[in-house]
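Next comes a concrete protein, fold included:
___
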Amino acid sequence: MAEVEKVLAAGGLSEQDIAQEIDAWNLMSYSGVATDQTWRVLQANVHSAECVSAVRQHHQLWVQLGETEPGPKCDALAEQWFAAYSDGVMNGIIETLTPGYLDLQPNDIAAHNGQVVALELIRR
């Protein structure tokens, strides 16, 4: 996970945001959702120069969402954030996961304003 932390830090995430991301990866591991292939893809992603760039762009959208009240501008930002969700460290990851159910809610992480709107898109 140290390599993932480095990529997230290079992408501009705060220590709190990095800890939240690592917790999410650990949850996927502990729950059996992550597979051996998941870890191989993650390893390849963190060694990709494009990964850091994608993480940085995605994080900037996340910060903007936190500063944006719900409404049309927020909806457009949330859609842009969601469209980029599978870039960066998540590139190719979704396809490797074992189907499962984790009853996570948007309020399970620190999210504000438009970030809550964006998280709802993932639950679709």
About this structure: The mean pLDDT is 90. DSSP finds six helices and no strands in the chain.
